[in-house]
Structure formats: structure tokens, C-alpha cells
Specification:
Elements lengths: L1 E3 L6 E4 L4 H5 L4 E6 L5 E6 L8 E6 L6 E2 L13 E5 L5 E7 L6 E7 L6 E2 L7 E7 L5 E8 L2 E8 L8 E2 L8 E5 L5 E6 L2 E6 L6 E2 L9 E6 L5 E6 L6 E6 L5 E3 L7 E6 L5 E7 L6 E7 L7 E2 L6 E7 L6 E6 L6 E5 L7 E2 L16 E6 L5 E7 L10 E7 L12 H7 L4 E5 L9 H5 L8 H7 L1 H6 L4 E11 L1 H12 L6 E5 L5 H10 L14 E2 L4 E2 L4 H6 L13 E6 L8 H12 L6 E6 L10 H18 L8
Parallel strand pairs: 33-34, 33-35, 35-36, 36-39, 39-40
Antiparallel strand pairs: 1-2, 3-4, 4-5, 5-6, 7-8, 8-9, 9-10, 11-12, 12-13, 13-14, 15-16, 16-17, 17-18, 19-20, 20-21, 21-22, 23-24, 24-25, 25-26, 27-28, 28-29, 29-30, 31-32, 32-34, 37-38
Length: 630
Amino acid sequence: MSLWVLGSSEPAAQSSYSLDDWLSVSSVSAFVWSADGTALYYTSDAGDSGTREIFRVSRDGGPPAQLSVNPVGVRAEPKDDLALSRDGRYLYFTAARYFQNYDNIFRMPAVGGEATALTFNDAVIETAPAPSPDGRILAYFARTARGTKIHLLDLESPTAWPRLFDPADTTERLPVWSPAGRRLAFVRGGDIWIRGVAGGEARRLIEDAHAGGNGSPVWSPGGDRIAFTTSKSGFAQVGVVDVESGRVTSITRSPHLHSDVAWSPDGTRLAFVQSDDSGLSRHVVVTQADGAGQSRALTRGSGMRSSPRFSPDGDLVAYIESTGTRTADIWIVDPEGGRSRQLTQSMGAIRSESLSEPEAITYPGPDNVPIPTLVYRPKDFDPGRKYPVIVRLHGHPGQWNHSFQLMWQYFLHKGFVMVAPNPRGSRGFGQGFHDLHIGDYGGAEFEDIMKVLAYLREQPYVDMTRKATWGGSGGGYMSLVIATEAPAAFEAQIIRAPVASWKQLAIDRFAASGRAWTPTRTPRRERSEFGGSYAEIPEVYDRRSPINFVEQVQVPQLLFHGLRDSSVLPVQSRMWVDRMREAGKADLVEHVEYPDEDHSLLRYKATTRDRLERMDQFLMKHLRLSGATN
């Protein structure tokens, strides 16, 4: 496979990888230990269905076995929210038959086989399955017209109706069973509460001095304490609360993000994830549960780690790791430290050492605020050459970090430079950096993104006549803002699921019920970033809506949208295309819809194949790159 650029007589990049090779890469999304600790169950898109299935792998490694089975002739759906019964007999997961997020809950034997639907209301979201310790009751929460409510389902009676955990006129979510199975901890109104399963009044758990901004409860093995995270410092911190007294022991206090807390089986230690100083990497950390002693980082080097979990015997910690050159896989390490061991192997035919490592840099925003950015150069980079560049635009409030990006590496191998800025409003750098865009959403980010051009002009290897943007969701919206506010800044745009009209989104996503709900997003009429509803400040919504300025567009666009998208409904792209046609600019936009896809367009590998092929040809044409790929 080769790519010829700028009419030169030499190929810009050489690679032995075919498109099939790239698509042999898969990724692990979640895992749980088996009850006896001899194996792990996990979800991955490594199977023949091309979407997330359930697998089992020995803790000693070796080939995995796929456990999930899809009925013949029925479209395979991604499996998520993996949970295991305490006795190890059953696996629970969620899958959405229609729109993304509109999950139902399923149960299947842990040895594999066909799954049984435990819920089947495709009109609401039913998620976060939590089987009771004795396996008799399933707790979960549903988003309905009443808001989020926890339900309990009797698993021993096939005709039992789910019942409300707390019939009061309140909302709650994310149920977690106490080890004895008599109480549930849950999140309500930005705090942690507990209530007996048999009834009684719910009680806010944490003392008044530390109330508010608390979540992610995890019971200790003895049931006397709960670990949690709190966001009041601007960076999520870890604490432990005594269940009876409500007294809090602080575990962390630093300008780093902390998440994914887990207890050791003996209740003496905690494992969690902590960001590094740059905010672009995260590490697995172990510390004493009483707050004494020093924390110990179990991982090192750039990369994103998540979901650390002790083995049932406490001898190992398993976690998911992704780096700039390695896809997400399960790794295990001794909690006392030492060398980590990779358990799953998801890189397929691609060798990680042949891929490009990102460089972390910053450039100044319009007011000199440093903008954290990752720069990728081709593996065979020659500083004396000129390279076309793609500026990646993330969703809102997303982050580019040291995690694996398959589609980026595909284009890096073809001789592109990739630049990925994190404008203000990005997550991962503390609440303060995120809130810098409040009141100016679509303005502050735009100015930060446009400042990347000054950085690129200073790089002698960047061809400033061959620049493209590539963004989805909030990055898709920013693509349209650039197209209307700076129409000559780039030569091509690749866009996924953009917001073209904030007025329409307020109708679809915040004012209306139905498919625009998510498990944790409460429908509302206003964008907090704008400071009010459309009825209150229509001029702000209209000024920030690119669809009102289509006449400015002069850049070619490749526009993707999934028809099962419930975050940004497909009407946004259709409205944009219609307005472009009305303005006599139909020749500037190529519109592609995927009937089986959701917001991310990552539901099925077949979609990734189609997108890469279309993007390849689009960039070759509109960046005026000579040659062909094969």
C-alpha cells in the first residue's frame, strides 16, 4: 500500500498493511473476574459479528473463547455493562435493539450460550444490572418520564413484574448492593444514599461537612465502609465513608483526576486510576484504605488505564490499558508492584512498534491559555519533506489523550501529520479548564482551534496548502463553525454527527422525551453553556448555529451520520445538506448515512471499513494528492 503526495516521484509512506490488516485490530471495553479468580470475562469486538461480544480468558493467558451467541438472521448488537453473579453461574449485560442507549438487560450462562432478555421495553432505558449477592434479585435503573428510578426484579419468578425500589417522588440511579444484600447504595441529587431493600427511609450517607458532589459508591467487603469519589475540588478525589457514622476519610487530595475505585478482598487497600500531571495519561494506583501510608503507582509510561480490579484472592490487579500505539487490552500486575503482563492480545496483524507515538505539546490560545495538544508524525518522518495535515476536533466535552486511535494510525501510515488540540471546555484538565468556555460555547473553542494554524505555520514540514479537519459530535459542530466563520482556513473537512441548529437540538434532545434520552442526561430545555433556554436567549442559539450562515461555506465536506444516533439526531445533517442545496452548494457536500450505526459510528467494523475507504478517496481528491492506495 502506498500514497503519493504533492506530485513527487517517491511515495511518502510505505506499509505492508492492507485494510484487512487494520481491521484485524480489536479492543477490550470491559471485564469482570470469574468468581473463583481463574479467568476473566470481557467484551471485545474481536468476534466474527464485528461488534462487541463476550469472551473468557484464563488468568494465565492463552487463546480466549467467545461465549455470547447471536440468533441466526438477527443483527448482532454490542454487549455492554458486564456483570457476574456472585456464585459465578450467570453473566448479565445490556444491549440496545433500536437506538443507542435504549438498553435492555440480558442474562446468559457463564459457560456461554443463548441469552435471555430480562427486560424488553424498547421505549425506555434500562441499564446498570446489579444481581444481589444471593442471586435472587436484580437491581437496575431505568430512565422513564419520571426520571431515573431504581427497579428490583425477582429472578426466581419468571412472571414477576419489576417493582420500584423507592416509590417516593425522587430520582435515583446506579444501585450497588451491600455485601450482605440487605441494603443498596445509590446516587441521588449529587450525593450518595443508602436504603434497605425491604423498605424504610433512604438516608444520605455522607456527613454535612462533605455533602454534595459525591458519587461512584463501592461497598467495602465487610460492608462497614463505602469508597466514593467527590468533585468539589475541581478534580475528582477519592474518599472513604463510615456507613454508620457518615464520617469521611480523605484518600487523595491533589490536582489530578481519580476514578474507578475498587477494594482489595481483605478491605485493607484501594486501587484506583489517577491522571498524570499533563492530564493526558492515567495510571493505576494502590493505597491503604485507611488513608495512611503512600500511594503506589503500578503502571508507568504514557497511556490510559481504567477499571483496576483485584482478583478474588487479592494476588493480582487487572486493568485495561491503551497507549498511542497499542489498542485497549487487559493487563495484570502484582499489587505490590513489578512488571505488568498483557493478558489479551488485540492488535491483530498490526505491530505496535511500526506505529507513530504522539508528542505532547502546548500552544497559546488567544489569551495565552496553554492548549494541550498531541502531534503525530509518520513513522518514517523526514523533517525535510512536506506533509499534508489533519486537525482532529473532539466531541464535547471530550479529550484527546494517550489512547489508541486506529483510524488515525491508518492515515499516519499514508503520510499524514495529525494534530489533536484540546481547546478550553475539554475534560481531563480540571473543572476550571472545562468551565473556561461557559457562556461562549462555540466561540472560545473556535478561537483556540484556529490558533493551531499559527503553530502549524511554524513547522517547516507542514504543507499549509493541504490541510483538513476531522471531527465528530461537538467536533462536527466545530467543523461547521469553521466552515462558516473561517471558510478559507482548510481545504477539506470530514464531519460526523454535527449540530447544525441549536434550536432544533433543543427541541430534539432537551425538550422532548423519546430517543434523545441517555441514562444519565436529564432532558432539559437549555444548554448550560449558553446560559438559558432558546425562549430566553434565541439570538445566542441562532448566532451559534452554523445552519444560519451556509452561504459562507466554500470547503468540501464529507458528512457521516448514523441513523440510530440518539445524541445528535440525523435531522441535523439532513437540515445542513438541504440548506447547502438551497444555497447552490450541493457539490461541496457528500452525505453518507449508516442505517445500523449510532453516534460514534463504531458499532460495527464494517462501518469503519467503509468510512476509511471513503475518507481515503475524499482526502486524495480534495487535498490534491496524486497516486492511489490499494
